[in-house]
Amino acid sequence: MLRQQRQFAADASHELRTPIAAVRVELEAALLHPGDAREALDGALGALGRLEAIAADLLLLADIGSVPRAAEDEVDLGRLVADELRCRSGRRRILIHQDEDVTVEGSRPLLSRLVTSLLDNAERHAATTVDVEVRRDGERALLSVGNDGEPVPAEDRERIFDLFSRRDAARSRCDGGPGLGLAIVRQVVEAHGGDIHVRDGDPGVRFVVRLPLVSSIPTTLVGAGAVRPLAGRPEPLTGPVRGSSCSVRCGV
Ligand SMILES: Nc1ncnc2c1ncn2[C@@H]1O[C@H](COP(=O)(O)OP(=O)(O)OP(=O)(O)O)[C@@H](O)[C@H]1O
Ligand SMILES: [Mg+2]
């Protein structure tokens, strides 16, 4: 526990120091060159935005699962994904395949964040195409997000869910996020009684989330703080994630 706490403190301060330093540099530049102050202040605001995003993610991580949530929503996963895709810029071609009425119970904002984080990652790492599936799989809803970029090697498939974990260490600290997205995704999934796996894509990589469908959730609440009672741990994933029904093409 102590070691984990130390690691967390070290990682968090490292991530926070970068945008703080950027704010300082920009403000100093504005003082030195008042004529260019506008540009420097824009830079400072951008760095402040990154700082705010990290603080908000850390707060969210502390909150997920720790506060009993009385009001729960019935969330149509297919609609949630479609709403999210509508707001995207279309940087990548996005394919979506979905069954009708794939409904889970839980927190709409948290499930929305889950979808956003997986899509952000997939778009960032895709070579050309992101592929999203929303399916019914027995008593489970299945949301899978794949992209055709570099695969994630088997030895990294667990640690990418750690706080502040980023595989592409060479990437500039200004590019991409602090490495909190998948940690949040996993906590959201687990708080909803589900699980998440990383698989080989075809090509690339695929993140597969399974959540209990509304009809399969037992009514007894287990443990304070769970968004939903934890359903029995699902069997390991086997077989391809495929199905029929509708396929919609979004973005370019
Ligand atoms: N679809 C993907 N393809 C390849 N690698 C991925 C993919 N998604 C995540 N990763 C790897 O896992 C790491 C952790 O992902 P995570 O979403 O937690 O952090 P991030 O995207 O770097 O930052 P943040 O999500 O906080 O903005 C990434 O830095 C990347 O190396
Ligand atoms: Mg991310």
* Annotation field: number of helices: 5
Q: Taking Cα atoms only, what radius of gyration do you get, to the nearest Å?
A: 20 Å
The secondary structure category is alpha+beta
CATH superfamily of the largest domain: Histidine kinase-like ATPase, C-terminal domain
| Unreliable segments of 5+ consecutive residues | 220-252
- The gross shape turns out to be globular
Per DSSP, what share of the residues sits in E-state strands of 2 or more residues?
A: 15-25%
Give the second-level CATH assignment, the architecture of the largest domain: 2-Layer Sandwich
| Bound small-molecule species | adenosine-5'-triphosphate, magnesium ion
> Would you count the extended β strands for me?
8
Indicate the mean pLDDT: 84
EC number: 2.7.13.3
InterPro entries: HATPase_C_sf, HATPase_dom, His_kinase_dom, HisK_dim/P_dom, HisK_dim/P_sf, Sig_transdc_His_kin-like_C, TCS_sensor_his_kinase
GO cellular component, one term: plasma membrane
GO molecular function: phosphorelay sensor kinase activity
Describe the structure using short key phrases:
252 residues, alpha+beta, Helix Hairpins, 2 domains, six-stranded mixed β-sheet, two-stranded antiparallel sheet, 8 strands, binds adenosine-5'-triphosphate, phosphoprotein
